[in-house]
Write a structure and sequence with these properties.
The complex is a heterodimer of chains A (about 110) and B (about 120).
Chain A lengths: L8 E5 L4 E6 L7 E8 L6 E6 L4 E2 L4 E4 L5 E6 L8 E9 L11 E6 L1
Parallel strand pairs in A: 1-9
Antiparallel strand pairs in A: 2-7, 3-4, 3-8, 5-6, 6-7, 8-9
Chain B lengths: L4 E3 L2 E4 L5 E6 L6 E8 L3 E9 L2 E5 L6 E5 L5 E5 L8 E8 L11 E2 L3 E5 L1
Parallel strand pairs in B: 2-11
Antiparallel strand pairs in B: 1-3, 3-8, 4-5, 4-9, 5-6, 7-8, 9-10, 9-11
Classes of the chains: A mainly beta (about 110), B mainly beta (about 120).
């Protein structure tokens, strides 16, 4: 499975935007880019996913580079509840299992 | 709709014993996946079941096994427990109407297994 690279940790002030980067230089044409996050003491939860075009939902936005070798998860206004580990995952369209990397631990400062 | 439920939430066993963990998926979901989470290895995929058949398997020894029932509920079993099996075991379910897709996976809260 193609690998992703994320910073180990990031900090953000509350109510400010957060840009979480992910590099995936070996991505293949059929790999979807998925983001999940894991809040403390909870199982992971889905955030957003995309293939080629930028995507928006109520939780976040996903910006995908034109060559698809990197992507950025954007939280428009970080809240304390957004403090979590964020995982960027490449998922082949034909597979239903997720291969998690080490993720980025986001700390939100009040 | 109720979310994914896992029982028990906490479990303490001793080395050499076996353990069975249970997962009830979201109503209507047909695929169930299991993951192991440890501080050292992070989140690792164990196996996935769909329509009572194991469809994918991660790189774990044969001591780890699972099954899925006709109502989509799933169990995983670990035999001959080792200290290194102490972990959070997470179950996830997804809709999977077509058999293969990129449906969202919904995770349960996990079962915390401690092996003494």
């Amino acid at each position: 499975d193609a690998k992703t690279t994320q910073p180990n940790s990031m900090e953000s002030n509350e109510e400010e935007p957060v840009h979480l980067p992910c590099n995936h230089s070996t991505i293949s044409g059929t790999d979807y880019i998925h983001w999940y996050r894991q809040l403390p003491s909870q199982g992971p939860e889905y955030v957003i996913h995309g293939l080629t075009s930028n995507v928006n939902n109520r939780m976040a936005s996903l910006a995908i580079a034109e060559d698809r070798k990197s992507s950025t998860l954007i939280l428009h206004r970080a809240t304390l509840r957004d403090a979590a580990v964020y995982y960027c995952i490449l998922r082949w369209a034909g597979a239903n299992n997720l291969f998690f990397g080490t993720g980025t631990r986001l700390t939100v400062i009040p | 709709k109720a979310g994914v439920t896992q029982t028990p939430r906490y479990l303490i066993k001793t080395r050499g014993q076996q353990v069975t963990l249970s997962c009830s998926p979201i109503s209507g979901h047909r695929s169930v996946s299991w993951y192991q989470q440890t501080p050292g290895q992070g989140l690792q995929f164990l196996f996935e079941y769909f329509s009572e058949t194991q469809r994918n398997k991660g790189n774990f020894p044969g001591r780890f096994s699972g099954r899925q029932f006709s109502n989509s509920r799933s169990e995983m079993n670990v035999s001959t427990l080792e200290l290194g099996d102490s972990a959070l075991y997470l179950c996830a379910s997804s809709l999977e109407t077509s058999g293969t897709s990129t449906d969202t996976q919904y995770f349960g809260p996990g079962t915390r297994l401690t092996v003494l």
